[in-house]
TrEMBL record:
InterPro entries: PP2C, PPM-type-like_dom_sf, PPM-type_phosphatase-like_dom, Retrotrans_Pao. Keywords: Hydrolase, Magnesium, Manganese, Metal-binding, Protein phosphatase. This is protein-serine/threonine phosphatase. The lineage of its organism: Eukaryota, Metazoa, Ecdysozoa, Arthropoda, Chelicerata. It is an enzyme of class 3 (hydrolase). Its cofactor is Mn(2+). It comes from Argiope bruennichi.
Amino acid sequence: MLSDISRLFDPLGLLGPLIITAKMFLQKLWILRIYWDDEVPLHLNREWEKFSSELSQLKNVNIDRHVLCSKVLKVDLIGIGDASKNAYGFAVYTRSWSRSGVFPSTIQQLDIWWNGPSFFSSSSWPNFNDDPGVSDDEYLLEKGLKALESLYDDNSSIEIEPDVGSTSDLFDEDWIASNTASESESSDHAYTCGSTGTAVVIDGNRIYIANVGNTRCVLSRGRQAVRLSVDHTPSNAEEYSRITAAGATVSETGLINNSLSVSRAFGNFQYKSSDLPTSILSAEPYVRTIDIQPDDEFLVIASNGVWNCFHDYEVVEFVHRKLERNRELHGYCHDMCEHLIYRTRYMEGVGTGNLTVMIIQLNVNADH
């Protein structure tokens, strides 16, 4: 890419719009913190290939450098400047008038300066929860941690069996208890607001995962993405059956009563009855256990704002590219959020959901 850009020689500035388009690719790489030896993301690589394939058409373009109409009455010197979040520039040209007072069809081009892309760095952190249920998340953080702590405080002598055993039961009991407590302690707020969640407990060489809703946990095993959680969505056949049996509808776009995009969540008691398994919305978690393997590298736990924009394998590759340069994970979650904000807002013109990311490194030896 850099080699191709350096070959675009335009001393007169007549190809300014094309040159700046090429340089804006460097801007995108800079914002995404892609270094010289890093692999270019697939979506940018495709965009560049399309652009570079059209460069050969330049040889068919002829531009008259000096054009004046006959019997000139006057010549105007015109300058235009403009700027955006992507680039800034300034152009100067002349315009000649004929005796008939009619603008000529061509103009004399004096010079054009396209000064380059607007290199900026965003230092803002994303809002981890911009929906009205933010206090539900704070409540669940407090109650959920206590519930997980009680797993060992109250069962310190438990022998964990390969089939998850009582640990799975405690996840179910504690999470549903947290959901029920939320109803009793903050019923007014929790009636219309809710939250999803994923919890991971690492006990020696074993990992326990529990999730409710569409937050997700993905394992990198031998640089391959392995999903350890389940997205609870209304379009899932089992979830769909429970929802419709409880008297609700699921739209073609996968929304419960044209409103809710998840089939399991904390709070949102307007969709729940006292009998949780038969409610429109459930708080019963999906629970899974795995043993850590020698080629397991890290876990990524993130909210749906990440997974709506990234495939599982893209997240795994993103972290691996960072680890290849620096084994320390510090700053990687921030980098991923910045990458997503730029990709959705500035490249695709859309927004993203709440962004919460955790990366847990596995099989870390004493050297790291």
